[in-house]
Amino acid sequence: MSDPDAPGTTSGARAPGTTSDAHAPGTRPAVVLVGPPGSGKSTVARLLADRLSVVARDTDTDVEATAGKTISDIFVEDGEPRFRELEREAVAQALAEHDGVLALGGGAVLDAGTQQLLAAYGAAGGTVAFLDVSLTHAAPRVGFNTSRPLLLGNPRAQWQSLMNARRPVYERLATLHVSTDGVPPRDVAERIAGALGPSAEPGTTTTPAVENPVQEDA
Fold first, then answer.
1. Annotated binding residues, as ranges?
2. PANTHER family in the record, alphabetically (predicted)?
3. Sign of the CA dihedral 116, 128, 31, 122?
């Protein structure tokens, strides 16, 4: 996913502003994935969407489509405030119209308006899944290269600092907490699908059947 910390795209993502033929007014995402760079949001979103027979959507990809440039270029040419503005709008639009799996950029949850929208979504029975990961397991996935604007300087220290600031927000908004340390993405997707329950179908959301955090396999 093209988190400002880890630009990229999500396979199967729908273009911003478009919906499937099956989309009906009042639907909401089947599940929203939040978490830091390296937690596997993009891969899990694709696998989970396949599992639920819905479409995966990535708000960072939406931002890039709207701006006509990569997130790294938005940061360099327009600044972080402009990126956050585009991100806030992308999240609000996707929460209102997308009926599949929605993956958010790592820092999207820091916006107060986005927090309110996610809290309301969760309170209405939506599933906000926090994909947790440690620095040790995130590092090989993220790569910590210079294309990640918020990880310049000392990437590992920057990642840990960002995670320390964001963790309380992730945990407060999440209705489902899944550790991805040492867990294959397909297994993470299956855990989330199991928490949604057997009645989960495209365009609908059920209250998670599992309330306690899913622990890493022994």
1. 38-43, 60, 84, 106, 148, 166
2. SHIKIMATE KINASE, SHIKIMATE KINASE 1, CHLOROPLASTIC
3. negative
